[in-house]
Design brief:
150 residues; 2,3-Dihydroxybiphenyl 1,2-Dioxygenase, domain 1; 2 domains; 4-stranded mixed sheet; 8 strands; Glyas_Fos-R_dOase_dom; Fosfomycin_Res_Enzymes; VOC family protein; metal-binding
């Protein structure tokens, strides 16, 4: 039996510093705090837009995100157009966050879709992309999807 109208719900992320991560995700993605608990042992923040939950942050880890282990590869957010990607890139640079590639890049050779790839304060790999408009830059990974090998 298949589940009708299946779609991704919210994404839950473990973080090391709730206040730092909440500020980062709010600034980069313009999220609002829907609910949070910032005191005691079990701290969390529910972030979203227009009342819809999109990301939950749970302060319950230490160290940095291990990219060499099975699990989350990267978290991707689509925006309407390449101008919104440029705005996100400018915000990243204001915060001192270096993109993983040299700015906005296509998803692959000849692809029009693409975006900017970066990490959050705990090393979780993130992407902000648009469905078109990224074909003005060369693909950084020849013969493979940009979002797959970084």
């Amino acid at each position: 039996m298949s589940t009708p109208a299946l779609q991704t719900g919210h994404i839950g992320l473990n973080v090391t510093d709730l206040a730092r991560s909440t500020a980062f995700y709010r600034r980069i993605f313009d999220f609002e705090v829907l609910s949070e608990k910032t005191e005691g042992e079990r701290q969390f923040a529910f972030l979203g837009r227009d009342g819809k939950l999109l990301v939950t942050l749970w302060q319950q880890s230490g160290g940095a995100f291990p990219v060499d282990r099975p699990g989350l590869h990267h978290l991707s957010f689509q925006v309407p157009d390449i101008e919104a990607v440029r705005q996100a890139e400018a915000t990243l640079r204001e915060l001192g966050v270096q993109p993983l590639y040299d700015g906005i890049v296509p998803h692959g050779e000849g692809a029009s879709s693409g975006g900017v790839f970066f990490t959050d304060p705990d090393g979780i790999r993130l992407e902000i992309y648009a469905p078109s408009g990224a074909d003005t830059a060369p693909a950084p990974t020849q013969g493979a999807p940009t979002c797959g090998f970084f």
